[in-house]
């Protein structure tokens, strides 16, 4: 009787938004702290980037963390390194834990940090993604595809997502979702 080995599910990258409430007058000190903690997390295994946002006036800041998988994110969240950085900011800012959000899919392009706002309707996400992907597709077809015409099909096919997806994820979609936020989410009175 042959024993089957359990299949380990393939882990997806995860994006988490952490919200910080900064004491009035301590913003500059907090911003200096963000640079140090960002350098620390950048060296942590599985980290794929961190961005700091201050989308509205006031004393709230948002950290958008991207990790290779949920386990590596958890490793960072419980790490001694993170605990040390938290100790340094005591009295300056506190994390608003009930606003912590994590996503593993494309909806992370459309989530508003620190809010309970639902993702926009799927048709708006599709249209916004098309607006971001179409110009990049044209550029790739114009600039990259002619140089790869002699390559085997599997290799040519790999070039497209390898160029398109990182540019969409890190540059185009965050900008488009900010630019189109009123259309995507409506006004606060809606």
Automatic annotation (TrEMBL):
<feature type="domain" description="ABM">
    <location>
        <begin position="14"/>
        <end position="106"/>
    </location>
</feature>
<dbReference type="InterPro" id="IPR007138">
    <property type="entry name" value="ABM_dom"/>
</dbReference>
<keyword id="KW-0560">Oxidoreductase</keyword>
<feature type="transmembrane region" description="Helical">
    <location>
        <begin position="125"/>
        <end position="145"/>
    </location>
</feature>
<dbReference type="InterPro" id="IPR011008">
    <property type="entry name" value="Dimeric_a/b-barrel"/>
</dbReference>
<dbReference type="Pfam" id="PF03992">
    <property type="entry name" value="ABM"/>
</dbReference>
<feature type="transmembrane region" description="Helical">
    <location>
        <begin position="157"/>
        <end position="176"/>
    </location>
</feature>
<dbReference type="InterPro" id="IPR038762">
    <property type="entry name" value="ABM_predict"/>
</dbReference>
<dbReference type="GO" id="GO:0004497">
    <property type="term" value="F:monooxygenase activity"/>
</dbReference>
<keyword id="KW-0503">Monooxygenase</keyword>
<protein>
    <submittedName>
        <fullName>Antibiotic biosynthesis monooxygenase</fullName>
    </submittedName>
</protein>
<keyword id="KW-0812">Transmembrane</keyword>
<keyword id="KW-0472">Membrane</keyword>
<keyword id="KW-1133">Transmembrane helix</keyword>
